[in-house]
Amino acid sequence: MPRADPDRDRPSRPPRTHTRPKASHKEKVAPRGTPERRSAHASPRTPDRRSAQKSSKAVKHASSSTTGTERSSNVLSIDSLAKLDALNEKAPREQVRARGEDKRWREKEKVATGRVIKERGKHRRKSGGEKRRVVSGPLAEEGRVRKRGGYVAEKREGRRRFGKKFWWIVLISVLLLVVLIAVIAVMVGKKKGGSGSGGGGGGGDGSGDPKNTNLAGISQSDIPTSAKGGYLDPFTWYDTTDFNVTYTDQTIGGLPVMGLNSNWDDSKQANPNVPALNKPWAYGTMPIRGVNLGGWLSIEPFITPSFFKSYKANQGIIDEWTLTTILGPSEAAKKLEKHYAQFINAQSFQDIQAAGFDHVRIPFSYWAVTTYPGDPYVPKISWRYLLRAIEYARQAGLRVNLDLHAVPGSQNGWNHSGRQGAIGWLNGTDGDLNGQRSIDIHNQLSTFFAQPRYANVIAIYGLVNEPKMIALPTDTVLTWTTNAVNTVRKNGIKQTIAVGDGFLGLPKWQGKLEGVQGLVLDSHPYTIFDPNLIVFTHQKKISYACASWSSQMKASMNTASG
Asked: Which residues lie closer than 8 Å to 269 by C-beta, 6 or more apart?
């Protein structure tokens, strides 16, 4: 009898189908993830369930075997049945494991869906558009999702998500761009404003420093060796704007003319209501509208605090004497010349004229002319800027009041005299010496300014600013004043000469200096230094000045009463 082929007649393996009973349309299905839903689909591994599964599979196997018996008389071996049972028993365990994996997958999918919805919501609010946001099982089965950062996100081809590092780079780049724009704006603003220099050969660049282009017309070899590096060497000047840089060692009254141009024009008129420079001004009947250039060639802490605020109080930097002492000659010269060049310039005089003024008072100190042993002051540099300022005033039609603001020894002991402290002018050990030094300085100044080029532009010649006569012998000051007037008149000064009232008060000048012609009493009444007056409104200050000061001035103009 032929032997049967066991492989041919072996029953086929039942297919692994995992189907779940569908709920009828009337049956209420618990929401996914709830305890009721989990209990409904639970598959505990109990002995009863395993027995039931075995019985079920046995029935199926028996049915299959019966069919096979009808086709063949061969029966499955015991080993084959055991293997088949093992496979059938393994299938439920894999089914349970698959359900567990499916449950975990659904939990991850819920997290991803929530996050994606949140992100897509933000994007819709920003862009106003709608985009697909669902990440579901079908997409996962298609391999179009990936895990990122602990959650499932949709993978889109051609689109790249930017991380924190990228946005930090963007933020830093934006900040750098803002800073760069701000710097450029400041530089452009400075270039528009310039250093305030007006016309001429120099001119300021964007940094505020002058270009000094007029030096291109000369050579350093044109400067004698003996003059190189000194006052007459224009290549050492911080600013050459509007100066004549052609070398000359010519002096008048011992004062250099280096920097002056040879031509001038006195036909300029400050405004239609006043005469041109070359026309006479009726002093005593015509009002003067003028302004003072304080804190420029004679620095004062309350006007130019920038020179002093960087020092500690215990250093005692309170005036130009202590400032130049601590800076030293070289550094002091650099700082002060830059201040001279930038604080007041050609545009300043144009602005003064545009404001309706017709006179300008220019204070300067004796070290513009010379210095003495022991002086720490910067010598002569301010002289050059004084001469240029007079030319700027001329171009604006402004008349000049020359004011010697500081004399040797200090005439009042205040910081604007150069040195705060004791009065050493006409007082103390060197009082007479400093008085004579002051006369010598006026001898030089009056000789220089008696030139024809200054006859019209200089209107008032001041002898000394605010001598503190309440602390000095009055007769000594009057004697010095008479000598000074005689000196300047002898040298050719025909302009009105200003004499400080010394804070005596105008009525106390009655009968004094009556024999000296061409004088004007320089009185400085202030409201700012009087606590009772500074609280006044602007209009009240004007009313006070008109009612009080003007009557005193009128009385002082009468030789019988003042």
From this structure: 275, 276, 277, 397
Structure tokens of 303? 């006007």
* Same domain as 537, residue 396: no
Q: How far apart are CA 496 and CA 460, in angstroms?
A: 5
Of 161, 181, 206, the residue that ends a domain is 161
Helix (H) or strand (E) holding 93: helix 78-127
Answer yes or no: do 391 and 459 share one domain: yes
Strands (E), 366-518: 399-406, 458-462, 496-500
Considering the domain architecture, whether residues 558 and 449 belong to the same structural domain is answered as no
Give 10-residue mean pLDDT values along the chain (562 residues). 47 48 48 51 47 46 44 48 56 58 63 56 50 46 48 48 75 83 64 40 54 94 95 97 97 97 96 97 92 96 90 92 96 97 97 98 98 97 98 98 98 96 97 98 98 98 97 96 98 97 88 89 87 92 87 75 56
pTM for this predicted structure: 0.65
The CA distance from 270 to 360, in Å, is: 11
**Beta strand pairing call for 251-252 and 255-256:** antiparallel
CB 470 within 8 A of CB 477: no
**What number of other Cβ atoms are within 10 A of residue 383's Cβ?**
22
CB contact at 8 A, 415 and 301: yes
Three-state SS string across 158-210, please?
CCCCCCHHHHHHHHHHHHHHHHHHHHHHHHHHHHHHCCCCCCCCCCECCCCCE
Rounded distance between C-alpha atoms, residue 513 and residue 432, angstroms:
21
Residue whose structure tokens are 């001041």:
462
User: 């009057």: which residue's tokens?
Assistant: 478
Classify each residue of 13-22 as buried b or exposed e, where b means 16 or more C-beta atoms within 10 Å of its C-beta. eeeeeeeeee
The answer on 545 and 520 residing in a single domain is no
Q: Which two tokens stand for residue 540?
A: 């009240």
Domain boundaries, position 363: 284-524
